[in-house]
Amino acid sequence: MIPIKNPDEIQKMRKACKVAANVLDRLCKEVKPGVTTYDLDQICKGLIAEYGAVSACYNYPNGRLRYPCHVCISTNEEVVHGIADIRHTLQEGDITSLDVSLVLNGFVGDNTRTVRVGEVSEKTEMLLQVTEQSLYLGIAQARAGNRVGDISAAIQRHVEANGFSIVREFVGHGVGRSMHEEPQIPNYGHPRTGPVLKPGMTLAIEPMVNMGKPKIAFADDGWTAYAKDRLPSAHYEHTVLVTENEPEILTLPEN
Ligand code: MF3
Ligand code: CO
Questions:
Q1: What is the per-residue pLDDT for 215?
Q2: Is the pLDDT of residue 144 over 90?
Q3: CA 139 to CA 141: how far, in whole Å?
Q4: 7-246 in CATH: which number?
């Protein structure tokens, strides 16, 4: 069952997502050579509190583990769910994905950007641009009457046409009262397949794209997923509302 949000719930989703977007936008401005991922996690903790929200990833369960950070920070070959570390200083040329998910008044907003640390290589710049473009191509398919597979296929086509790889192990998702609701939204698949989209659905669309091969592995911390070939990986995400007309991107920051 895919939840359809009523007008009141949609208003609350708009508010939670606006805050998630503002937090992410302000956090991105803190990324520079010399900052540690621990610093960024602490800054994010403060920003989320400033808006009266609560991190949705902090303490998130995975078996007997609980996610220990307020924002998922995944650098270079790390794909998702990286762990902040006081010994991890970001360097010129790195990329780092900041995945901010938070709860405000019982509703979740979820969004991600991959940030350049100073200047990055040309190939890395391509990876970031293609991944972000694939997100917007996916969002353009989030229309009533389309199917989940239309989103998936649009993302996959663009990524692979540019010679990059779709990560298969993680997918986008419905989002609302909980961070992960139905439907799952793979970043690969076939048009005209999967659940039909309806107005009032709120979806987190989030391509994760590897520069090299798609295969991932997990670090000893039990959380961090990284590209097995250790080449860079990018991740962009918006929470989107399906309407009678154009999709509404809920995670746009204030300015
Ligand atoms: N925000 C992530 C998503 O888009 C989930 C992070 S939850 C974690 O699905 F705690 F497991 F990291
Ligand atoms: Co998400």
A1: 98
A2: yes
A3: 5
A4: 3.90.230.10
Q: Which atom of ligand 1 is nearest to the CA of 81?
A: 12
Strand order in the sheet with 181-185: 181-185, 172-174, 202-205, 238-241, 248-249
Q: Say yes or no: CB of residue 206 within 6 Å of ligand 1.
A: yes
Cα-to-centroid distance, 111 and ligand 2 (Å): 7
- Residue 233, Cα to own-chain centre: how many angstroms? 13
Query: pTM for this structure?
Result: 0.98
Q: CA–CA distance from 236 to each of 19, 76, 131, 138, 209 (Å)? A: 17, 14, 7, 11, 9
Tokens of 143: 């229309």
Tokens of 215: 């295969």
Domain definitions of the chain by residue range: 7-246
Encode pLDDT of 246-255 as tens digits. Answer: 999 999 999 7
Beta strands in the chain (DSSP E): 54-55, 61-62, 65-66, 72-75, 78-80, 95-104, 107-116, 165-166, 172-174, 181-185, 202-205, 208-210, 216-218, 225-227, 233-235, 238-241, 248-249
For the stretch 29-69, pLDDT in tens is 999 999 999 999 999 999 999 999 999 999 999 999 999 99
Ligand 1 near 72 CB (within 6 A):
yes
Continuous segment of H or E residues that includes residue 4: none
Residue 209 near residue 121, CB atoms below 8 Å:
no
Query: What are 20's strand-pairing partners?
Result: none
